[in-house]
Design a protein that fits this description.
Blueprint: E1 6-10, H1 14-25, E2 29-33, E3 50-52, H2 63-80, E4 85-86, E5 90-94, H3 100-110, E6 115-118, H4 120-126, E7 137-141, E8 145-147, H5 149-162, E9 166-168, E10 173-178, E11 183-187, E12 193-195, E13 197-200, H6 206-209, E14 218-228, E15 242-247, E16 250-255, E17 262-266, E18 274-275, H7 286-299, E19 309-317, E20 324-328, E21 331-338, H8 348-363
Parallel strand pairs: 1-2, 1-13, 2-9, 5-15, 13-21
Antiparallel strand pairs: 3-8, 4-8, 5-7, 6-7, 10-11, 11-12, 14-17, 14-18, 14-19, 15-16, 16-17, 20-21
Helix pairs in contact: 1-5, 1-8, 2-5, 2-8
The structure holds flavin-adenine dinucleotide.
Length: about 400
């Protein structure tokens, strides 16, 4: 038997770690290259918790990625013994002013996603942590739940390492140069490396590092805020599902208590938060927390009004907030998966499988391991200069 084809994975965050796991399981000789340690809290996989949901406001065409990821999250728990996903539901709450929640419910029902609509009195009885003013509508996505991003990155990388992968931490990739026989990856400390194929998952750092993509990945700054709760038992995942709520001019995401004393409240992504990944301001100012302090004061019961903990994170955004997963740099030996625009974590394991599909189509190596194919569908968008 010949040696396994080699794949370099650039950026071992959400997408890179999942790709390492799926590529190693598919029989590739995988090397992950990460500028920091794995995991870390300076990119898009920090901040302790993420929402997983299938009733998807952003479009039902994400459903193949979401349903395959749902299976893989459960596999990852089995492989790693880490509770990286808890299916405690995702609760949407609307003030009823516009029909977005009803439209999300309709699409979910059409695609057989199990959901329950809740009246304002049912919300008050079942979810008293939310302060209601009357006229609200709720939607519970029963397949939704809470992901643990740092642990998931650690678990997927660990699974890949157990399958024989190699990890190079604190190594920055400065150039990727494909040719007809392979790909040369230039690094700051380890010299040039040679692979049969490369998967680029450099998140918010993409545009300064990949100048010829033909489209821009804009880094955006997302400050996170954690507020102490009066009674932690009322906010544990089983009693306080992840939530997305629109009330008047407020629109936020709420996350259960997983540290024993706080809940996380995230504001929407504001358009004026564009930044440069390498020089992002990591200081959280009172201006940064004003929005979520208002959410806590107006929309939650039993939560203290000042954040006890804060952090600054960054993600890479495309113009239409839809990710790009495609061959890149004019070569079918280079695959990129970038621009997850503040909503990619939940689908990251399936993105790892698309990496396998695209690289296998080029290198043609099969491990003989049975694997469900994930259709890339609308997310396979060709970048300028791409050869296929
Ligand atoms: C605060 C916050 C909350 C979010 N909430 C949700 C949510 O509830 N649900 C959801 O589904 N999604 C959510 N998202 C979005 C989701 O987390 C991201 O879309 C996803 O993690 C993006 O993954 P990534 O691999 O592209 O980026 P990252 O996880 O940031 O990984 C990129 C990696 O590449 C490394 N890297 C970059 N350049 C180089 C280089 N040149 N050499 C070596 N390494 C390099 C970086 O260090 C980093 O580790 C949220 C994002 C943030 C920031």
């Amino acid at each position: 038997m010949g040696s396994k084809p080699t794949v370099g994975v650039i950026g071992v965050g959400a997408m890179g770690s999942m790709a390492m796991w799926r590529l190693a399981e598919a029989g590739f000789d995988v090397t992950g290259i990460e500028r920091y340690g794995v995991p870390h809290d300076m990119g898009a996989h920090g901040a302790e918790t993420r929402i997983y949901r299938q009733a998807y406001r952003e479009g039902a065409d994400y459903l193949p990625l979401l349903t395959r990821s749902h299976e893989l999250w459960k596999d990852l728990i089995r492989f790693s013994g880490r509770e990286v996903f808890q299916q405690n539901g995702c609760l949407y709450i609307s003030d009823g002013a516009t029909p977005w929640l009803e439209e999300t419910a309709e699409a979910a029902t059409a695609y057989k996603v199990p959901v329950t609509l809740l009246s304002d009195s049912e919300l008050a009885t079942n979810h008293p942590q939310h302060r209601l003013y009357g006229g609200e509508v709720g939607l519970l996505d029963h397949n939704g739940g809470t992901l643990r991003p740092e642990q998931a990155v650690l678990a997927a990388t660990g699974a890949a390492l157990r399958l024989g992968a190699t990890l190079m931490e604190y190594t920055v990739v400065t150039d990727v140069a494909p040719d007809s026989a392979g790909v040369t990856v230039v690094t700051d400390t380890a010299g040039p490396l040679r692979f049969d194929a490369v998967f680029i998952a450099s998140g918010a750092w993409t545009s300064p590092f990949q100048k010829d993509l033909g489209f821009e990945i804009v880094a955006q700054r997302l400050p996170g805020t954690w507020f102490p709760v009066d009674v932690p038992a009322d906010f544990v995942p089983d009693r306080f599902p992840v939530s997305i709520r629109v009330a008047g001019d407020l629109d936020y995401s709420g996350f259960p208590c997983v540290d024993g004393w706080t809940v996380k409240v995230m504001p929407p992504v504001f358009p004026d938060t564009q930044t440069i990944a390498e020089s992002v301001d990591r200081t959280v100012s009172p201006k940064d927390t004003a929005y979520t302090r208002r959410v806590v004061a107006e929309l939650l019961n039993g939560v203290s009004g000042s954040p006890a903990r804060t952090g600054v994170y960054i993600d890479g955004f495309t113009a239409d907030h839809r990710p790009v997963i495609d061959y890149s740099l004019g070569s079918n030996r280079v695959v990129g998966a970038v621009g997850f625009s503040g909503h990619g974590f939940k689908m990251s394991p399936a993105v790892g499988e698309i990496a396998v599909d695209l690289i296998e189509a080029t290198i043609g190596a099969r491990s003989g391991i049975d694997r469900t194919r994930v259709p890339g569908g609308p997310f396979l968008r060709h970048s300028e200069g791409s050869s296929k």
